[in-house]
Design a protein that fits this description.
Blueprint (H helix, E strand, L loop, with lengths): L1 H23 L20 E21 L5 E8 L5 E7 L6 E7 L5 E5 L7 E22 L4
Antiparallel strand pairs: 1-6, 2-5, 2-6, 3-4, 3-6
């Protein structure tokens, strides 16, 4: 019985490692990417957050800006009944704010862009509403400001 328990634990640990490796080494389409892989320079747009649900009073989503993709395009669709606010911060949830705004509750897509290239690294999209949110978030990175 003790031997079976050890095998079950080993299987569960292995499954957890596989899930972690997949989450940290795959792109937004679920394709594996080598850690030292170079980015296809023919790409001009890279989706990093796709159709993520927003719910409750606060949400935080993290994304990584890769070399050559310094322009952020963030789109929100607010299907709730109240405005919600958003901020994109560099480095941490309380880092330097690089973009912020308010999204009206009209069910339409509202898109925001940064006008200068950002440094590589982690960025955080923070959304909040006193009344609770309902909607979606999309974030893509682009090679130019168009």
């Amino acid at each position: 019985m003790k031997h079976i328990r050890k095998m079950i634990v080993a299987v569960l640990v292995s499954a957890a490692v596989i899930i972690l490796v997949y989450n940290f080494t795959s792109n937004s389409e679920g394709e594996f990417v080598k850690a030292d892989a170079t980015i296809n320079t023919s790409l001009t747009k890279l989706t990093v957050i796709n159709n993520e649900d927003l719910a409750g009073t606060t949400n935080t989503h993290r994304f990584d800006i890769r070399a050559g993709f310094g322009y952020v395009k963030v789109s929100f669709k607010n299907t709730g009944s109240k405005h919600f606010a958003f901020t994109i911060n560099e480095g941490s949830t309380s880092g330097t704010a690089i973009m912020s705004g308010s999204v009206p509750p009209d069910g339409k897509e509202h898109t925001y862009y940064n006008d200068k290239a950002l440094s590589t690294g982690w960025y955080y999209v923070n959304t909040s509403s006193a009344q609770g949110m309902s909607g979606t978030l999309d974030v893509s990175l682009e090679t130019n400001a168009n």
